[in-house]
Amino acid sequence: MQQLSVTDTTLLNLETPTSIGHVSSVAILDPSTCPVPFTFEHLTERVAARLPALPQFRRRLYEVPLGLDRPYWIEDPDFDLDYHLRHIAVPAPGDDRRLADLVARIHERHLDRRRPLWEIYLIEGLADGRVAVLSKIHHAAIDGITGQEVLAALVDTEPDAPAVTVEDTWRPEQPPAEAGLLVRTVARSMLSPYRILVRSARLARQIPAIGPVFTNALFYLGRAGSVEELIDHPGVAAPRTSFNRAIGAHRRWAFTSVPLTEVRAVRDDANNGPGGVLAHGAPVSVNDVVLAVCAGALRRWIQGRETLPERSLAALVPVSVSVRRPDGETEHRVAGTITTLATDHDDPVERLTAISEAMLVVRDHNAVPAQALKDIGQLTPPSVAALAGRLVARTGLAERFHPPFNVVIANVPGPDVPLYAAGARVVAHHPISPILDGVGMNLSVTSLGGQLDFGLIADRDLVPDLWDLADGIPAALEELRAAVASRSPRVFEDHGATANRGR
Question: Which pTM value belongs to this model?
Answer without folding.
Answer: 0.81
